[in-house]
Amino acid sequence: MNILHEFEYFKPKSKKEALELVKSKGSSAKVLAGGTDLIIQMKEKMIKTDAIIDISDLEELKGIKCEEGKGAEILACTKLVDIEFNADLKKKYPALTYAVSQLGSNQVRVMATMGGNCCHSSPAAETPAPLSALGAKVVLASLEGERELAIEDFIHGNRKNALKEGEILYKFILPEPVKKSACRYGHIGLRNAMEIDCANMAVNVELEEDKATIKNVKLVMGSVSIKPLVSEAVPKVLVGKKLTDELIATTGEAAQSEAKPISDVRASAEYRKDVIGALARRLVKEAYEAAKEA
Amino acid sequence: MKKQIIKLDINNQIYEVMVSPTDLLVDVIRKQIGLTGTKKGCGQGDCGACTVLIDGKAQLSCLMLAIASEGKKITTIEGIANQETGELHPLQQSFLDHGAVQCGFCSPGMILSSKALIDENPQPTEEEIKHALEGNLCRCTGYVLILEAVESYVEALSKGEV
Amino acid sequence: MGKMYEVSNKYNNYKEYEREFTEVGRSIPRLDGPAKVTGKVQYTDDLVLPRMAYGKILRSPHAHANIKSIDYNEALKLDGVLAVITGEDCPIPYGIVPHNANEHALAVGKVRNWGEGVAAVAALDEATAEKALELIKVEYEVLEAIVDPRESVKRDDLRIHENHPNNIAYEGTQVYGDPEKALAESDYIIEKEFYSSYVNHGFIETQSAISDFDPNTGKLHMYATCQVPHYTHQQLAKVLEMPMNKIRITVPLIGGGFGGKGVASQADFCSALLSRKIGKPVKITYERSEVFATNNGRHPCYMKFKMGFDKDGKITAVDFNNLMDGGAYSGWGIVVLFYTASMVHIPYMVPNVKFDGKRVFTNKPTCGAHRGLGGVQPRFAMEQMLDEAAEHFGMSPYAIRKLNAVESGYTAKSMMYVPHSEYKKCLDEAVEKSGFLEKQGKLPYGKGIGISGGYYISGTSYTLYLSYKPHTVATIKIDEENGVTLFCGATDIGQGVDTVMAQMAAETLGVKTEDVKVIPRDTEISTFDLGTFASRLTFATGWAIRQAAEKINAELFPVAASILKCRGDEIAVKDGYFYSIYEREGKKGRNREVLWTDVVTMYIESNGPLTCSGQFTPPRRKGIQQGGNIGHSPTFGFSAQVAEVDIDLETGKVNVVKITEAGDCGQPINPMSVEGQVHGSIQMGLGQALYEEMQIAPDGRFLNPSLHDYKMPTIRDMPKIDANIVEAYDPSAPYGGKESGEGPIQPTAPAIFNAVYDAIGVRFTEMPLTPEKVLNAIKAQKAK
């Protein structure tokens, strides 16, 4: 099915106008940021909408602020390629820029936005896991004002999220990485590109002054639950300890025990659990090593 | 569904076309404007045959509303050879010389993706070329000679031969 | 050599055909290349005819259901809808193999697979046609679906086709020698089961057809993405009940075929029926999901093998039981079934063979012809068993292959005659170039190297219906206005046969390839050719072209001789000049040569127009058993491949690092094109080995009919490829050249599987080799 159902097309010229449209059209409208998910769903008749509000060219919603010591702010309509190739982000948040570089294809990254990737709220989405591991917050905007949510609280899973009628995702706020911390991202798919991940993961490790004892760890899994899954077990295994091979193995088992994947055309639940273990072992080690140098 | 007249800037020509909001850029380019070098292989952004350059960047015209493309500079495969002399773009020539073209159906997208990369990064590594072309499926060539064609053009470019 | 091999050139029959080629052997960029890189090439869907309407096909959501009723009144009422057709409009069945015809343009009474067409609409534009589909009400009585041939064959109570008990489409047995005795006397026997997967061709251009029926003349002109215009021509005539001479098929350039466009598509029939109904041209272009719904891809095979060896490692016998999943309809099925049988006989000498095969219907999109058809499945099994035997005998996998390899002049038990083989050279070169012997068995756990061989036919000896006409006719027209024009119905599907034909014609005529015009395939203009399949074109059109060109030369040589004042049999032609073979001096000399164009002018002024045809019919052989004629070919191409893998032991992911290939395609006509064929074959073989599989739910729903979930290799998934062409010349071939586009896919999957065995010591027998299967095996190994 190639043909889209009829809809009215709006292209607001400012954020304010966009918010007015989002409010007045309510649930009868869909917001188009990059279109790489939305248009496909419309072609497949999974989504039927009366109106499209195209914010893809709204400069007010694009941009990256990443200054030394001040974390970063990424506006929601920033194209993924602009995140992928932003040198400051790459230096400060390599897990995020790497995750972005592994999403879809070059053409998709040119068109798609991080806002779209998160609002689409697919369980297999690439960016929510690293955003969550990095402690990112989202800012939702409406005519009434703005509100801030942790990314985990924003994504409810299976194409559901916290956006209320009249709201759009405005920006992402990333805290400045603490000293002696590092975050790493990994994913497993069948091919080496153009994959919808069968599992992905981000791990953020913070070390004590001794550069050996783990002070904090946040491990977030994607594609193994309806929403990004923040491990509760892994911190219990690792915090206060120095990383050993034994602990690495236990970490893998801990992450596996929490994952609740499904079987589908891409992989079985069992295999997803297996690779969660592999990812956890690898990423914890990588992040730990990197944190020593941070 | 209200149709409206929009202006599209394709290969430095302004085309006035009547579109409905639902019309996709690929269909407008192929059917209304008649530039059939832009191909349709899957309609879902998976094969890259419909790749066009929009403001110099490779994008998927099958996932792009035509109406949303107004005011942007669109380049299709028909627009990269020398418009006056008809001489092939050296990248096109390189694809020919290296046997990177078999059935030819992916070639327009492949060439445009390569061009977008090299315009921005004239000295890409093999890894960077693969990264830029990972969204263009080809079933005939195994990509080997495509990679060779792009690398050879990059080399010629660095030597100032093209 | 048979009559058809003989050339009619009465002047130079005495001398051996010259092997010092000037046009053959050149890596010429393909002649249609500039049009392809600039987007000027016209594929079917690029064409727009005046007054053209658009068609769409409504497809069944059920895999097995009786159609109780179809109500399309609402659709007809929609503004812009011109006509609707259903199975009632096309009651006559068709099929590429005419005596097995059981397919319909649209389902008649019953659907047998997900996505089968049930109605088609023509409308003023595509959007209206699609909307109209939503207004058609089809009432189905859903039946139980069977998707596993092992079940299907037991379910006589649930017949997919009423006239096929136990859902068996065909079955056949072949016995050569005394396999039972030979196995009993063997020193070593391997008994093993294998499964080859359900894959699609994945060409990037979806099928498309434009039919233009003229009610005033009663003629139909169709433009279609068709590898086999002749067979489609026949079937259209049958379904439409029109004489063939009222139907013309033009084939624009094709965006990849791989066998998938080797059957008439429902777009062909539906566009034709709709066009005849409304008197306007109608275009139907498939969406990607329709490519999957109509499939015609490789047959999944459940294979049981017994392979016997003597004490030295020589093969004594093969017993092959093949249960083939045919999907819903017949298609190429019977041909593929017996191809799997024939592929056992080469590239190794097998003195005793038993084949027992069944092709079984299931409620899945039909399987058909797919690059290397019939070979990929048994090769996958046998090449792995050879490795297992080598291990048993303490031999190298290379040595056991060399020991059993066929050589030129070999006649298989099935009477297949191999006029020429450099298979041993292929093995030598692949092994040497890859360092196989230094690495095999010596790499660290997780890394491995594997070898495999393969071969393929260079054309078939038989037509799909009883006929004694030539398989190919090439016509060359020489005139002052156009130079050389070559007419031949052979279909360029992207493999580059147009360029290769031009090279071969240019070689014999003594002109430049670039000066030969090849007239694209059109059933009304081109001279007859059976179509693009079985890697037949280089060999078959080569003979026809050579014969036509030599007839031309026979006319022109006397004229040149009289100008050059020498005997006719002393004339040769090259680079656009006729010259005396005894008195041509250095390039500057040119005292005894005359321009080709001057001779043509003189000939035409005194004799009139000059057009000659050549033809080719492959030889047939005696002494064949049921289906044993299938697989016979005038000659065969060979190849050997070495694959190197690096397995991620924690995720089970198999990374193919490098593939070294050495191929015997005889004299490559266009080495660059051969290289491209090899690369493409490896890519497709690798995809089937590791990634690709059409997934069907137990109720017959198609789970992944898209290119994001049907995973073809991307540029990132390709290993380094070292493709080598071994020095070879097949004297039975017109220019020494043989197939090169289907042989190289044969070894890829088994080479990878053998490499995985070398890496982790586990023998896998099912494709695709997903990371999950590998990881489970590694876990099981650890548990031990």
Would you kindly provide a written description of the structure presented here, covering whatever features stand out?
- The complex is a heterotrimer of chains A (294), B (162) and C (784).
- With 294 residues, chain A is α+β, with helices and mostly antiparallel strands.
- Chain A folds into 3 domains: 47 residues, Uridine Diphospho-n-acetylenolpyruvylglucosamine Reductase, domain 2, CATH 3.30.43; 116 residues, 2-Layer Sandwich (Uridine Diphospho-n-acetylenolpyruvylglucosamine Reductase, domain 3), CATH 3.30.465.10; 113 residues, CO dehydrogenase flavoprotein, C-terminal domain (Enolase-like, domain 1, 2-Layer Sandwich).
- Chain A has 12 helices and 14 strands.
- Chain A has a 5-stranded antiparallel sheet. Chain A has a 4-stranded antiparallel sheet with strand order 11-12-13-14. Chain A has a 3-stranded parallel sheet with strand order 1-3-2, with helices on one face.
- In chain A, strand 12 and strand 13 form a beta hairpin.
- Chain A is globular, with a radius of gyration of 19 Å.
- The termini of chain A are far apart.
- Chain B is α+β, with helices and mostly antiparallel strands.
- Chain B folds into 2 domains: 76 residues, Beta-grasp domain (Ubiquitin-like (UB roll)); 69 residues, DNA polymerase, domain 1 (Orthogonal Bundle).
- Chain B is globular and about 50 Å long.
- The mean pLDDT of chain B is 97.
- Chain C folds into 3 domains: 176 residues, Aldehyde oxidase/xanthine dehydrogenase, molybdopterin binding domain (Aldehyde Oxidoreductase, domain 4, 2-Layer Sandwich), CATH 3.30.365.10; 180 residues, Aldehyde oxidase/xanthine dehydrogenase, a/b hammerhead (Aldehyde Oxidoreductase, domain 3, Alpha-Beta Complex), CATH 3.90.1170; 251 residues, 2-Layer Sandwich (Aldehyde Oxidoreductase, domain 4).
- Chain C is built from 19 helices and 28 strands.
- In chain C, the strands form 7 sheets. Chain C has a 7-stranded mixed sheet with strand order 3-5-1-12-9-10-11, with helices on both faces. A 5-stranded mixed sheet of chain C has the order 7-15-14-13-8.
- In chain C, helix 6 packs across helix 7, helix 10 packs across helix 11 and helix 15 crosses helix 16.
- Chain C starts with 32 loop residues before the first helix and ends with a helix.
- Chains in contact: A-B, A-C, B-C.
- At the B-C interface, helix 2, helix 3, helix 4 and helix 5 of B face helix 1 and helix 17 of C.
